[in-house]
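Schema walk-through. Below, the input block comes first and the output block second. Nothing else is stored per chain. Lengths vary across the set, and this one has 167 residues.
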Amino acid sequence: MEITIEVIKTLRGKTGAGIMDCKKALKDAAGDFDKACQIIKEKGLETANKKANRATGDGLVETYVHNGRIGAMVEVNCETDFVAKTEQFKDLARNIAMQITAMAPTYVSQDDVPEGQDVDPKQDCLLSQPFVRDDSLTVQDLINEVIAKVGENIQVKRFNRYELGCS
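--- output ---
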């Protein structure tokens, strides 16, 4: 199959990967679009794993309030202020705040659950929850995609959720 610039652009639009990465993935997948998407996703996960131990001393605090009754505040960290100012990072932080507002997790990850406490990670742990805007992804998958795009480690440090009338 011939790999056209239109197919490369479509793959780039769907994955956010660079043009050369898209072209290589399509070539490796023998022109199979879905297989190329999977190759790019795996490469992004590999990139995220390589960066997981890097310090995240910058970032931002994002808020989201729904109908003035439910809201969340989340601290999302990255390595540099340069990345913290990018639209991809700001969108990620906003989506995470929206996720917290909608799904009411108790913990950031399974590592935060006290020993001996029985929880459902898909309900109680933010990073394991299906993403509200695309349930084929978890919140961690969403973060990994942005890590692959911006080239820095990203971590959710902490969050608070508020609901009117609840204590």
